[in-house]
Write a structure and sequence with these properties.
The chain has eight helices and 20 strands. The chain is of the alpha+beta class and 421 residues long. It has a five-stranded mixed β-barrel. A five-stranded antiparallel sheet has the order 8-7-6-9-10. Strand 17 and strand 18 form a beta hairpin. It is rod-shaped.
Length: 421
Amino acid sequence: MTNNLSMQELLDQQEQELNSVKVGQTITGKIAKITNDEVVLELNYGFDGVISVTELNLSKGKYASDIYNVGDEITAIITKVYHKDGVIHLSKLQLDKKSDFKDLEKAYNEHRIITVNVEKNIERGVFATYNTQSLFIPISQLDTKFVNDTSSYVGRNLEVYIKEMDTKKNRLVATHREVLQERLDKEREERRVRIQAEKEEARAKAKAEREAHKAQVKAEKEALFNSLEVGQKREGKVTKIMPYGAFVDIGGLEGLVHLNNLSWERVESVEDMLSEGQEVQVYVLDVDAETKKIALALKDINNDPWDLIRDEVEIDDIVTGKIVRTIEKGAFVQIREGVEAFLPISELSEERVMKVTNVVNVGDEVNVMVIEFKPKNKRMVVSIKEATREPEEDISEFLEIEDSLGTLGELFKEKFKNLEK
């Protein structure tokens, strides 16, 4: 049907199609020709589209022939329409600018980092490009530290946020400082989290070690406690002195050495025999499984002086001792180390004694007779009176003669009997 159209009708149709093309429209065409100055496109309208090299958005030092070939498609914006010549002028640069601006707008709305290249510097900052768009970075937004010279940034690629965007004034302001600060903050937070995690790990490890050590110590203490037997001899260290005795550590467990178990002799004060930190040898006296209390003795419980003297002394024996203490009712006499006997005031003398010290004093050596001896109860009573008493005269031999002779009456009866005869 088109072949049947007259020339005038074809011209009218072409004019009508040309009139439908508007400046600002986007159009796509195939490259028909490439020259040093321009690229010619073959458009669907039957017209030619021309893009000058300045509107191709070529990189510096590049020619159109380095980028494009005949037959390639190019999309561009219509900038001018020449009806007389039937030529449409296009710009790929303007289309790219619109596209780049949309990218920047999206980056601004999404607060997304973009990379720009610094091309120029001034005293107050630098100018950078994002493809076809130009941005300004103030000197205060170049670094987290003070910047004195902006020239060192020229030629560098910087990661930035779009800080301000004014489409009416075509003003784009970017910040590199916020990117750096954000990363510093992130690094600090990561470092803080890492340090916190390391601390928590160290605390957890230390806690586990403490618990393991505690469990080990507890097990060792239990094993030690279970191994204790009455009469055992153990090495220990005095940990605390009290008025009533001393606490001794015997390898992780503490036992009490009571004042009475410090020595077989009488001890007036714990400090007279022990001091804190002193290494000692002790004997196990008692182990209470329920209360976990341990009674210890510094004196040798396996050599009780009362047991040793049991076979040496009997009642009525005369022994020598030393007065070690006097009281109103008598005195105490040390017979052997660890063995004290009681000397009652009534046994001091045949005569009445009003005061013990009138007869004996501490330090006196005396000979005494054992008048009561109960080693099992650790009790011995002695007497000076009995020890010094004159022995009674033995008249038993006379008694035996008297028995053999009979009575005097019987003797004289026999004599008178002879007289009667």
